[in-house]
Amino acid sequence: MRQLTPEALNPAILNVQYAVRGELAIRAEELRVQLKGENHGLPFDKVISSNIGNPQQKGLDQPPITFTRQVAALMEWPALADIAPDAFPKDVVARAKELHEAIGSIGAYSHSQGVPFIRENVAKFIEERDGFPSDPNHIFLTGGASAGVSLLISMLISVPHKSGVLIPIPQYPLYTATLARFNGVPLPFHLNEAADWATSIHDIEAAIEKAHREGVTAKALVIINPGNPTGALLDEDTQIELVKLCEKHSLVLLADEVYQVNLHKPTTHPFISFKKIVSQIQSPVPLVSLHSISKGVSGECGRRGGYFECTNFPANILDLIYKMVSVNLCPPLSGQIGVDTMIRPPNPGEESYDLWKKETDEIHATLAHRTKTMSGRLNALPGVSCVDSPGALYLYPQIRLPDEAIEAAREAGKEPDAFYALQLLHDTGICVVPGSGFGQKQGEWHYRLTCLCPGVEDYVRKLEKFHEKFLQRYSGAN
Ligand SMILES: Cc1ncc(COP(=O)(O)O)c(C=O)c1O
């Protein structure tokens, strides 16, 4: 019998890259194991996971929203409401009863598109958010936004190696990884760091023309708003221009809006959904809007819940999406229930409201404080510039590295930013993701770090000390 080798597998799989869980994250896990041994010999006593936006991860410990978990507990075990009658607020018991009546046991498959009652609630949430109608039949509940992205890209790539998707650079690597998997072509356009990571219509037009010259058809435009890793928020005029651009080039607009409530400066940088823009200007552009329970204040990454809404999609395309989701039977019920509690939090006057408000206010305030502190202190370091993100969970500082460091990195067979990030990990235990994983202009180096780590003072001091030491270590050429 022939041995099973990677070459025997689908070659597209070998081209998939996903830096968020790449070399740095793997090395961090090894160090975490090493720390458990006596005399581990490492200059730190814990690994700090700044590499992934996973707020409830051990060590980051963002507390889950009590309301979400109480409803989830009663959905898992409805008898608990009678066994522990004083343990749950009345509105939680009523919510779980209502969901139970709509769903039955969460151990059963649901409608493939997601529980109709929950989709109706999502439609109401969208209508209240935007002031325009939403149809529950155009909403698909998913096992996280990633599942939606994967499905949509798999459906859009019609001619392998000749169908492309426009991707902002820096990007969240889900997009290039998914394109690689389905033999689609990433069509990159750079965001403008000097203008706080603004999106330029001109640069997207240039990417479309380049694709055209290379015989690749642009099928869709991905916009991440608020951005990952940049945290940037689009203004309304740019959003309108982007919709018009999609009209001009017959593009599907994939609006990744998973960070829509992570706003650190909501008065100057508000979130406006693309659904609202498309509805306002009555555009015919096919729009997919993605949302998730993994981010925001919910942070329920492991529960795997999200949804996408299709706007301006013809009925026969919706039927095809339905056919494809039905192959996977249904999204996880625990994730669907997570979506319901995210988009239907307690109302003022209900028993759970005060605690929900306190918990969510605290998460928003902590994130905004950390983002401001970290960006301010990073900016003050020699050779570092960092846009003070108005949204999402990350910072994406640029690091200008001494020539000696770049040479040493090349000798070690590493990209200079990966070289920097590995030394940061080995010196401090802080795990970040090198910019090469998200994309950056040639000759520029960045890294992405999350603003989710507790003890921000101590954390920033470690970053500062390391940076200064690194510059000294390679200061000969500077
Ligand atoms: C921009 C963006 N889209 C989608 C996702 C995936 O989210 P989910 O956990 O819902 O699959 C992430 C996760 O970090 C993200 O940053």
UniProtKB/TrEMBL annotation:
UniProt keyword annotations, A-Z: Aminotransferase, Pyridoxal phosphate, Transferase
Residue intervals of the Aminotransferase class I/classII large domain: 89-451
Protein family according to the UniProt entry: Belongs to the class-I pyridoxal-phosphate-dependent aminotransferase family. Alanine aminotransferase subfamily.
Tree of life domain: Eukaryota
MF annotations from Gene Ontology: pyridoxal phosphate binding; transaminase activity
Source species taxonomy: Eukaryota, Fungi, Dikarya, Basidiomycota, Agaricomycotina
Source organism of the structure: Pleurotus ostreatus
GO biological process: L-alanine catabolic process
Signal peptide interval: none
Transferase is among the record's keywords: yes
Cofactors required: pyridoxal 5'-phosphate
Subunit structure, as described in the record: Homodimer.
The protein's name: Aminotransferase class I/classII large domain-containing protein
